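Protein in question quoted for reference:
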Amino acid sequence: MIYEFLRFLEVLKPVYFVMENVSGLKSIDGGGLIAEIARRMDALGYNVSHGLVCAADYGSAQLRRRYFFIGVRKPYPRVPMPPATHGAHGPLSRALKLLPYVGVGEAFAGLPVIMPHRNGAKSKPVNGSEYEAVLLDKPNPKAAKRKAKSISYLQKKSNGRSKLKKLVGNNVRRQKKSLK
């Protein structure tokens, strides 16, 4: 997946990009893989910042660690990794003016009931949102159509650039088949 992402960078040449991967990426080959990725991004014309990020440090109700790369085309200056906005309760967090970590109860407060607990009632979305359909593990034709539409838009914007069409062409065919 990483090398495929680098291929997209080479073809599409976006001004900015964000790439994330598992936290264990930093330990592969003693950090050598990260160094190689950063070198390749630099060779493709990007100033890159990278580092390990914990979702809880940004207000998410989970201790999920991911490795991020943030790139910008040269000659624009490197985009720094964002500073944490949340932290554990304590003097350091107060000194840094960090908000307290968010718990699951706070994150779910105010959400509609999706799965009733009484009378053996079956689960069903309260308002039919896409998020609820995902939670209930149901097919989501809206999301599939939106993805196919996005890929189609990219093809049109390519103005005949055959490399882009090759990159996204197979994805469009797969999405169209999934809509049938």
Summary: The beta strands are 16-22, 46-54, 65-73, 86-87, 99-100. The chain is about 40% helix and 15% strand. Residues 123-132 have pLDDT under 50 and may be disordered. Residues 9 and 44 are 8 Å apart (CA to CA).
